[in-house]
């Protein structure tokens, strides 16, 4: 069989084997992602037309992507985009790749008893994923987002324009450049990985910016930064909701308590890991 006569099914089998040999999890699914992105079709198309023949130029592009992926480049960077909360976001090496686990943070935020036209802040927005997901569901809320990296700010603004979602995004190192107003809801998926965590040398984490991953000497520094002025920044009855590492729930809850937040709760993610901490100013 010549390369120019490869069908969709043939290519998926070949890519699946190469991904498996490279130790990539979800090998078949990742192969399908690449093909769907190239063909601009959905996954159902691959199964409806498995004998469709791929063109030589298509195979050339697929080979480039395959090589990049088996050498470790994150799939999201190869595609240039990633889905989060049903939104397609442009991604770049300047920011963390949005994770499905973070959708739990969004889900919990949307279920809070927050007033209409609430003021919301996303600290460390990256691609803008959390802020844009919130705005897509609550168009009447005023949603602000900040990040200390200018590249991330530019990317979040671009995603907002492309999705036609009206959020404000500006550059700030945590609270430094944020106007002195209060918020009804503050959200953050801050850097929280311990600098000696072995996961930093595995998978996609090898490539993502350490500033978006590592939370200081003990993995908790970002929480201290965002909690320091929290009593001045949360409106009365307002909520703080943060993502944390699976083994940090007790430590983060303790920091919330030191900051005089009330009704502190920990919630699990979709895999059953303690992933989100909630506190209230009352």
Descriptive overview:
With 282 residues, this protein is of the alpha/beta class. The chain folds into two domains: 3-71, Helicase, Ruva Protein, domain 3; 92-280, Vaccinia Virus protein VP39 (Rossmann fold). It is built from eleven helices and nine strands. It has helices at 8-21, 27-39, 43-48, 56-70, 75-79, 103-110, 129-137, 150-163, 221-227, 230-233, 249-258, and strands at 81-84, 87-90, 119-123, 142-147, 168-171, 183-188, 234-243, 262-268, 274-280. Strands 5-4-3-6-7-9-8 form a seven-stranded mixed sheet, sandwiched between helices. β3, α7 and β4 (142-147) form a beta-alpha-beta unit. α1 (8-21) crosses α2 (27-39) and α2 packs antiparallel against α4. The protein is elongated.
Backbone CA Rg? 21 Å
Q: CATH top level of the largest domain?
A: Alpha Beta
Major sheet attributes:
7 strands, mixed
Low-confidence stretches: none
What's the CATH topology label of the largest domain? Rossmann fold
Could you give the order of the helices and strands?
A: HHHHHEEHEHEHEEHHEHEE
Spatial strand arrangement across the major sheet = 5-4-3-6-7-9-8
On the 0 to 100 scale, the average pLDDT is 93
Distance between the termini: 70 Å
- The CATH superfamily of the largest domain is Vaccinia Virus protein VP39
Strand content: 15-25%
